[in-house]
Design a protein that fits this description.
Layout (H helix, E strand, L loop, with lengths): L1 E5 L6 H10 L3 E5 L10 H6 L7 E4 L2 E4 L1 H11 L14 H23 L1 H5 L6 H26 L10 H11 L12 H11 L2 H10 L4
Parallel strand pairs: 1-2
Antiparallel strand pairs: 1-3, 3-4
Helix pairs in contact: 1-3, 1-7, 1-9, 4-6, 4-7, 6-8, 7-8
Bound molecules: glutathione.
Keywords: Transferase
GO molecular function: transferase activity
Protein name: Glutathione S-transferase
């Protein structure tokens, strides 16, 4: 039995959708950073960074959404949500997972939290947001082009956990001047992932309408 600590709309979205895709037993534990849940002594023992998600399985405790995705795919190879080690598409899968978490997610985090880049003075936040948008634009263009030429998924015809991750990150851009959903191939991709029963169920569990 897995236990996933989550908060709505957070980086827990992708691991949560993956647990449902895998069809494995899991329970969800809601933690609300706004109420200080992530700073409670008990939660800090699980995740010293006071962030979500955190995955617990018996004695095993881990955080970092992308690492959780990789671990779950490894634990349940039969679901084929990641190419197996040694297969042709494995390097590409790893490339996408790391690109998404290390590059796209980081820039989106800068958009959501300008104070972490330029400090608490709100006069500087506009510039930080503009910089993040400027950096995000070529990333969305690149992904849109990739999906248009080699899609419909990041691994071509093969759906994988990386697609779940990208759909989550795409949602985080919904309030940007140029949201991911506005790019044609990305828009089709997002609609396709959202139409999967597991992803739709995750959105329902999180109380997210779109
Ligand atoms: N790199 C981490 C980032 C986790 C993260 O920043 N989570 C956010 C929600 S998306 C969070 O817990 N924020 C609460 C806070 O900063 O207090 C991951 O991908 O798991």
């Amino acid at each position: 039995m897995y236990r996933l600590y989550w908060t709505p709309g957070s980086a827990a979205m992708a691991p949560q959708a993956l647990l449902i895709e895998l069809g494995v037993p899991y329970e969800l534990q809601l933690v609300d950073p706004a109420k200080g849940d992530t700073r409670s002594p008990d939660y800090l023992k699980l995740n010293p960074h006071a962030r979500v998600p955190t995955l617990v399985e018996g004695e095993m405790v881990m955080y970092e959404a992308a690492a959780i995705m990789l671990y779950l795919c490894e634990r349940h190879p039969g679901a084929e949500l990641a190419p197996a080690p040694g297969t042709f598409q494995r390097p590409l899968f790893l490339q996408w997972m790391v690109y998404l978490t290390n590059t796209l997610q980081e820039e989106l985090s800068r958009w959501w939290h300008p104070e972490r880049s330029v400090g608490p003075d709100e006069r500087h936040h506009k510039l930080a947001l503009e910089m993040a948008e400027r950096n995000l634009d070529p990333m969305w263009r690149f992904l849109d082009d990739r999906l248009a030429r080699h899609g419909p998924y990041l691994l071509g015809d093969r759906f994988s956990a990386a697609d779940i991750y990208l759909a989550m990150l795409a949602r985080w851009s919904r309030n940007c001047a140029k949201p991911a959903a506005g790019f044609p191939a990305l828009g089709r991709f997002i609609a396709s992932v959202k139409s999967r029963p597991a992803y739709a169920r995750m959105l329902e569990q999180q109380g997210i309408a779109q």
